[in-house]
Prior knowledge:
This protein is an alpha+beta fold. It has helices at residues 26-31, 131-142, 159-175, 186-205, 214-233, 240-247, 251-261, 266-284, 292-298, 304-315, 319-324, and strands spanning 2-6, 17-23, 37-42, 50-56, 61-67, 71-76, 81-87, 93-95, 98-100, 105-108, 113-118, 122-130, 153-155, 209-210. Helices cover 42% and strands 23% of the residues.
Amino acid sequence: xxxxxxxxxDGTRDMAERSxxxxxxxxxxxxxxxxxxxxxxxxxxxxxxxxxxxxxxEHLVIVRLREWLPRVACIxxxxxxxxxxxxxxxxxxxxxxxxxxxxxxxxxxxxxxxxQLSSGKCQxxxxxxxxxxxxxxxxxxxxxxxxxxxxxxxxHPCGADLSRFLSLFRHACHLARPAGKLIERPxxxxxLEQEMLHAVIHCLAGDGMEDSxxxxxNHTALMTRFETALHKSVDRKVTLPDLCDEIGVxxxxxxMCCREFLGVSPMRYLLLRRLNxxxxxxxxxxxxTASVASIAREHQFIELGRFAATYRAAFGEAPLTTLQRKA
Length: 327
């Protein structure tokens, strides 16, 4: 991982903090999200690569993310902020069952848990602001409150509002580059934040908001309970009926929700989570003292031959190769 953070050095109050980090380890990338808790489940073979650019202003946090492998991201958002996520460029994403491209923005409420899917190389943005800032900016700019959603809502802003929003996002990312100096000037950071706040509020207040049904909200709550149950079960033997009993839901309903939100069955997702957990353990382990067999058993893979075949199919390499690779 390579990271660089830049702050003013002239004694003025910090108006902007920026960093750009590159990762070859999913665990380090997860930690880079800061206030948002992230669990990445890689779903395809290849070497992991990701880049995270962050610009923190007085109220807004603007993040651009680039990833090179397909994955499912379970993202637990901070309880005191609202979030907008959106594809950048030609990227297509799925978020909580919504498939969308660069003409849509996903609006997430405070403390929400989000499932986001990518099918390969992708680039996306994430912008957050405090709840009180949403309320005050909404009241000033629209004369009416803008309420955070209970579950993910898909926005379809008008062309001019969307174009302005994406243009300012690109400009913010340009200013956040290590070589840039303008963003170190407090008046530039302040002006950028005001323009970005206006663009965010106009997108949220537009007439193109696609309503989320009560059924979708219920499915979102169910998936949150599912993730909680998985967290308890990932390192112990468990069956689908066990999970359903703990969640309090019928097998058919859980299968349907997992297909909608994750693109796979509940047990396939559990298998992928265990494989990713085993891969992380292999990466951390000392090959002089650890063995593939012991790590496999710790993650409920009892048959070593089957584990090795499944691991190779998922990640494109043998588990021993991962263990012996130098950090």
